Amino acid sequence: MKKGSLLIIDDDPAIIYLLVKELTNHVEKIFSAKDGTEALEIFHTEKIHCAICDIVMPGMNGVEVIRQVREEGYQCPIIFYTSHGTGDLMFEVSRYGAFDFVQKPDIKTLKEIVLRGLEWGLNANHSKKIADALSPDHLSTYWKLIKSRK
User: Fold this and answer.
1) Alpha carbon distance 101, 111 (integer Å)
2) In sequence order, which residues have a C-beta less than 8 Å from that of residue 101 and are 6 or more positions away?
3) Is the pTM of this model over 0.90?
4) What is the pLDDT of residue 68?
5) Could you give the angle at the alpha carbon of 62 between the alpha carbons of 61 and 67, nearest 5°?
């Protein structure tokens, strides 16, 4: 089974270290970026199957990262992992096709969602929308909020 590549975007080196430690056995390769600019450079040079992104970072924030990534045509799942999550922020990143949104420090939920994101990112034929591919018992708080606003 292919494991895929993961990009972790966070300005906190301790978070990057923790996520690499927790996820290294589940992916083929892990890349990390300390900010949005560095993340975009990685998107330009590497095949990324899934990304984890913080929201509040110096320079380009997480919303700007997903907006730019989508404008450049990259469709890999982007999971937001942040301690600054609000309903409005969740709805804003959903406009750009965020895969999910997890509150720090919930590493267990993040790991489950990353595995689904990698599977989705490795599948070249995305015949379904992300929300439609998730069964109701697998909907996170993020997806429940997004579906309730439609």
Assistant:
1) 12
2) 79, 80, 82, 85, 89, 90, 93, 140, 141, 142
3) no
4) 95
5) 105
Which domains does the chain carry? 5-149 (3.40.50.2300)
Q: Is 114 helix (H, G, I), strand (E, B) or coil?
A: helix
Please provide the distance, in angstroms rounded to a whole number, between the alpha carbons at the two ends of the chain. 36
Length of the chain: 150
Taking the C-alpha atoms of residue 146 and residue 43, their distance in angstroms, rounded to an integer, is 27
Task: Report the pLDDT value the prediction gives residue 128, as an integer from 0 to 100.
Answer: 47
pLDDT at 149: 61
Mean pLDDT, each 10-residue run in order, the chain (150 residues): 88 96 95 96 96 93 94 92 79 88 92 91 63 54 58
The backbone torsions φ and ψ at residue 49, rounded to the nearest 5 degrees and listed phi first, read -95, -20
Q: For helices 36-45 and 62-71, what crossing angle results, to 10°?
A: 30
Find the Cα–Cα–Cα–Cα dihedral 134, 137, 140, 144, rounded to 10°: 90
Q: Could you give the 3-state DSSP secondary structure of residue 33?
A: strand
